[in-house]
Amino acid sequence: MKRAKVGIFGGSGFYKFLKEYEELDVQTPYGAPSASLKLSSIGSHAVAFLPRHGEHHQFPPHMVPYRANLSAFSQVGVERVIGPCAVGSLDPRRKPGEFVICDQFVHFTTGRRDTFYDGPETTHISTADPYCPELRKIASESAGRLGIPFHSGGTVVVIQGPRFSTRSESRFFRAQGWDVINMTQYPEVVLARELEMCYVNISLVTDYDSGLEGDPSVKPVSHEGVIKIFNQNLENLRKLIMDMVGDIPEKRSCACGTALENARLKA
Known about the structure:
CATH superfamily of the domain at 81-258: Nucleoside phosphorylase domain
Number of helices: 6
CATH architecture of the domain at 81-258: 3-Layer(aba) Sandwich
Shape: globular
CATH class of the domain at 81-258: Alpha Beta
Oligomer: single chain
């Protein structure tokens, strides 16, 4: 089987990334992933691309086969995962068209299969710092070098979807001090950690969730609006990922690769 060290997810509006690639169909113990893997290289790095919603956006957020997707990456040897996604802003300082490199999440999802370890071996991974610090640093340095507007750090609140928030829900999330809102970051990031992969989130702000309080001219989020802003910033996202991959060192200096070392309960 072909190998790749870097896995890249495509989110809403980001279904194609590599111009030349080899397709690979992968079956996993958790079923089929969202699509076939697209294998190629960026510089000296072998990479695998996978649109998380499928090539025709046929998987809504609560139906994405997250375990199969991460398992497929694992089967081809992926150690680092770049997970771009569209987000709504809960903070007027994080504006549409800007990127947020998140360092924390809070989830309000229900019923999603969010672990590879259902027993009999009990496994408790740490997610105190769920996003890889090494990849986050690389992402921030790349964005700064390219002149792309970004925020280094932020909390993403993950909702179940596929509906968007009510105004009251959005007001509650803002009151907690959370920064952006999304539907797919959980359980993707924790499943990557369970497989001892590094994971970095690159959030593209596409809207102000349920509008901007005090400014009636700013309308609540719509899917059409999300895709419009995403398409306008697609080239910046491509440049950022390309630049990031070129800076990824061969060996990891973070603790992501040893996440299971003390995570298992021994009788």
